[in-house]
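Running this now, will post back.
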Amino acid sequence: MWYVIQVQTGREEQIMEEARSYQVQEYFDEIFAPRYERKRKYLGEWHMESSLLFPGYLFVISAHPEELYKALKRIPQLTKLLGTGEKWTPMSEEDIESVELLSGREHLMKFSEGYMQGDKVIVTKGSLKGLEGKINRIDRHKRLAWLTVELFGRTVELQAGLEIIRKE
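Update: finished.
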């Protein structure tokens, strides 16, 4: 089962390392923070980087949620485990599929390329291929796209790397 942990934004990597070292690792199969590839321009050149797809959230796959819940509570700076009250709720199958569709098995949303055909975006390669209908805004200069997806029972806006090669 997949679960979501809310952490202080900017501390995702630190919390993952603490989870691996606080004798918590025996209770989970994997802990990760999905990322997306993007390009940033500095020193006059474009460089590929990765940024957090869901800042402030970690995902954990575990078959032992009760033990994991108790062990994670020992980690300082852990904001909360998403669920209802004291019960830690697993992610729905639809949410898991959405996260896997966006970031794949490597938990990395690949940089995308495409072109504009009038007002329509056509993505030719990358993770956004097939998700054009979810794109609601593009910044061609920063090579970023914003897309809206349904996750955790609400609408979430995400950033993704997208370069528009040409306009038709």
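The chain has a mean pLDDT of 91. More later if anyone needs it.
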